[in-house]
Here is the input.
Amino acid sequence: MKELLEFINNKNKIAYTMHKAYELGFSDSDTEDREKSLTIIKNMQKTLTSSYFNNKISYAEMCIDFMNIIPHLSNENRLIEMFENFTVQYLIRNKQIDDMFCDFVKDEIKKKKIIFINLCILNYNTERCEEDEAVHGTTMIFIPHKDSYKLFYINSHGQDMKDNMEFHIIKTKSRCKVFKHKNVIDFIFLEKLINFTNLTQNVNIVYKKNKYHNFWGANFQGGDSHGICFVFPYLIFYNICNYFTKKKALLNGTTVDNFKTLLLTGRIDRMVHSCFIDFMKDMDDVDDTNKIDDMVVEMDYRFIKKVSNCFIAYISQSCFM
Here is the structure.
């Protein structure tokens, strides 16, 4: 098996990489058939982790539709009905299991597992009115800590989520309905979901709409016009498998602490940055959000191309099939 960064200079065209990702099931939001991609990620997890840590972490995928959620954030009865019917997909004995979100989370918390949920959001219509459906890939990480669990949320838009306080619904070609909120819509949704889960499942998950629980660093999609956001949660999971309990040495000579420590001590931005700055030449400061932002913009599509080409080539190896 070749290591991830051995593919960093892969020269495939984005169109080929996107086609390959779709074949493997990574860029497909169809929840009915996730078995292929779930199997590949499970095999990656087994390969990268010790048998002990492999049994300590649970990976699942989840798909929600903001069109059914954000316009109804003030309708508690409507939200409860939706939350009760949220499902996740995961793998057991090489078979896809479809489970209720709350049941899954409660069961894994009982086992004291680290829970990683690759969250696909349909109709992520936060910026402007578009006729095409906006799909966005994000990450939820639940970590046991003392007598509670902490939830950390990663959206690759980083600090640019400050603009994500509106939700747009197309009415006609020239008219759009806009729902305006006083905070990031992702954060509002997650707070309500976690409050519901705590109440109905008798668990204690801590989540707040702040920079401790939410990634607020560089916008890694500043040059993405191809819809490559699906690759970010997979690369974050790759890094979690490798570095949750051990330090990571970056190509620029910097060594960052293990990811568990980074998350629990409020350094989620440093953790996420360390997952991606190896794809940037001459990036010497893992903590300089503005400098990393500028580099993403300067590299334009080349950054997203390098990230996606590298990961899809890596995960296509026969050992993961």
Summary: The first strand starts at residue 57 and ends at 65. Residues 150 and 206 are 5 Å apart (CA to CA). Residues 4-320 form one domain.
